[in-house]
Design brief:
442 residues, TIM Barrel, Rossmann fold, 40% helix, globular, binds iron/sulfur cluster
Length: 442
C-alpha cells in the first residue's frame, strides 16, 4: 500500500469535502490506513486511480483456475521467508496425462489423480490438479481427455502450444476455467488472444532468459491479459532454485511487476525431477506438474507441503473433548493428551497399536505439546480436571482412573485431589502405550 503522501500527490487537492473528510490530505491518510475506499472520492482521475490500484495491489497476483470446491488458488504471496509471516497458498500438485498414452491411458491417469489423497494430522492431503498434454497423440483424443478431466471436478491444465487445437480443448470446458499452457516466444500473440477471449489464466514460458520472460509477461499484460503464470527454465535443481528465487525476490522486494505472478514447474519422473519438485514446494513454485506421482514419493511430498504451508505461529490443533479410540465402553481406560495435532494423532496411533479400545481426553493447550504446555502453565491439574468435569467423564466411565503422560507425572497428586480419580502415570513416550495398555487388560 502506498503511503499517505504518495496517495495525496495523486489526489485533486481541492479539499471539496465530498468524501466526507475536510481535506484531501485527511482522505489520503484514511486511505493509507485502509479506513476508506478510493471510490469515496468522485474526482480521482482514471490515471491516478490506475496508479493507486497498481501500487495497492499485492506483490504477486492471485490467480485462480478450476471452479467450485476444488478451485486452485495460487500466488498472492507476500513473503520471501516463511518465518517472517507465512506462505498463503500451498503449491498445487498436478499429474500429467499425455496423449501419447492414448485415451484410455489418459483416463487412467485422470482417475489416479482424482483418487490420490491421504489423511495426515487430521487434514486431507491430495493431488489438486490434472494436466492433459497434447504431444504426439491424436488431437481429438486430447480434447476428449480434457473434457473427461474437467468433468472430474479437478482443476485442469490444458497443455498445448498449438493455438487452434488448444482452442478446441478450451471450448470443451471453458466454464471450468482451465489453466492454459503455454505461450512461448513463437505463439505469444495467439495464446494471449485465446486466453483473453475466454478470460482464462495463461502460462508464459519457453523464454531463453528471465529477461525475455519478463518482457513476454509485460507484452501479455499490455495486451490486456490479467491472469498470468510464469514458467522459468528449471533445467537443473540449481537453475530451478536460482530462477524461482530471483522471481520471488524481484516481485516481493523490488515490486517488479512483470514478475508479480505465480509460477509453474513442469517435470518428468526421474530422481532429479523429484528433487526439483521438493525444491519447488519449498521455494517458490506455485504449481508443480509431474508425469508420475507414485505413492511412495507423493506422500512425503504432500507432508512437506503441509509443513511449509502451515502458519508457523499457529500450530495445527484438534478440538478439545473426549474421543473414542476403537469402541470403548464404560470400563475402558481413559488417557489424556493435548490438542496439538501432531501429539494427538501420535498418541491415538499408539493406542490403536494396542488393539484395545480406550477413551482419549484432549485438553486445550492452544496447540502446544505436552511438555511445552506444562512448562508454559497451559497444561495444569486444574485444566485437566475442568475437561474431566466438562465432559462428564465420571458419568460415562466407571473405571475411576485416568492415565497421564509420564512427562507430567508431577501433576498426579493434585489431579487426584481435584478429580477424585485414581491417577496412573503412563510412559514418558507414547510409543510405550501399547505395552502398558496390554498390561492393564491382562
Ligand atoms: Fe479531496 Fe476527493 Fe475528498 Fe474532495 S472528495 S476532499 S477532492 S479527496
Amino acid at each position: 500500500m502506498p503511503t499517505a503522501m504518495e496517495i495525496y500527490k495523486l489526489l485533486p487537492k481541492t479539499n471539496c469535502g465530498e468524501c466526507k473528510l475536510p481535506t484531501c490530505l485527511a482522505f489520503a491518510m484514511q486511505l493509507a490506513n485502509q479506513k476508506v475506499s478510493l471510490e469515496a472520492c468522485p474526482h480521482v482521475s482514471s490515471e491516478a486511480k490506475a496508479a493507486l490500484e497498481e501500487s495497492g495491489s499485492p506483490p504477486i497476483r492471485l490467480v485462480t483456475f478450476g471452479t467450485g470446491e476444488f478451485a486452485a488458488e495460487i500466488g498472492d504471496e507476500t513473503q520471501l521467508f516463511r518465518h517472517d509471516k507465512k506462505f498463503y497458498h500451498p503449491t498445487i500438485l498436478g499429474l500429467i496425462a499425455d496423449d501419447a498414452e492414448g485415451l484410455e491411458g489418459m483416463k487412467a491417469k485422470i482417475d489416479a489423480a482424482r483418487a490420490a489423497e491421504f489423511e495426515r494430522v487430521g487434514q486431507i492431503l491430495r493431488v489438486n490438479s490434472v494436466a492433459v498434454r497434447h504431444s504426439t497423440g491424436n488431437p481429438e483424443e486430447f480434447v476428449e481427455a480434457v473434457k473427461t478431466a474437467a468433468a472430474k471436478e479437478l482443476p485442469v491444465v490444458i497443455m498445448c502450444e498449438d493455438a487452434s487445437v488448444a482452442a478446441k480443448a478450451v471450448d470443451s470446458c471453458a466454464d471450468k476455467k482451465p489453466l492454459l499452457y503455454r505461450a512461448t516466444p513463437a505463439n505469444l500473440d495467439q495464446m494471449v488472444e485465446l486466453a483473453k477471449g475466454k478470460s482464462l489464466p495463461l502460462v508464459i514460458g519457453g523464454a531463453s532468459s528471465l529477461d525475455e520472460l519478463s518482457q513476454m509477461a509485460d507484452t501479455a499484460k499490455k495486451a490486456g491479459l490479467g491472469d498470468i503464470v510464469l514458467e522459468p527454465s528449471v533445467g537443473s535443481s540449481a537453475e530451478a532454485l536460482e530462477n524461482l528465487t530471483a522471481i520471488r525476490r524481484a516481485a516481493v522486494k523490488d515490486r517488479f511487476r512483470p514478475f508479480g505472478y505465480p509460477t509453474v514447474m513442469v517435470l518428468g519422473s526421474s530422481e532429479a525431477d523429484r528433487t526439483k519438485a521438493a525444491l519447488g514446494v519449498m521455494k517458490y513454485s506455485s504449481i508443480v506438474l509431474m508425469e508420475e506421482l507414485p505413492r511412495e514419493f507423493l506422500y512425503p511430498l504432500l507432508a512437506l507441503r503441509q509443513n511449509i504451508f502451515t502458519d508457523p505461529q499457529v500450530p495445527i490443533q484438534v478440538k478439545a473433548g473426549l474421543y473414542a479410540v476403537g469402541e470403548p465402553d464404560e470400563k475402558s481406560p481413559v488417557l489424556f493428551t493435548t490438542n496439538f495435532s501432531l501429539t494427538y494423532f501420535t498418541v491415538r496411533a499408539d493406542i490403536e497399536k494396542s488393539k484395545l479400545p480406550a477413551w482419549l481426553l484432549v485438553v486445550d493447550t492452544e496447540g502446544q505439546s505436552v511438555m511445552t504446555a506444562f512448562a508454559a502453565g497451559k497444561l495444569t491439574p486444574e485444566s485437566v480436571a475442568k475437561v474431566i468435569e466438562d465432559e462428564k467423564l465420571k458419568e460415562k466411565n466407571v473405571r475411576g482412573e485416568i492415565i497421564i503422560p509420564g512427562m507430567v507425572s508431577r501433576m498426579s497428586g493434585k489431579l487426584n485431589e481435584l478429580s477424585g480419580l485414581k491417577v496412573t502415570v503412563g510412559p514418558r513416550e507414547s510409543s510405550g502405550l501399547p505395552k502398558m495398555m496390554k498390561s492393564l487388560s491382562g
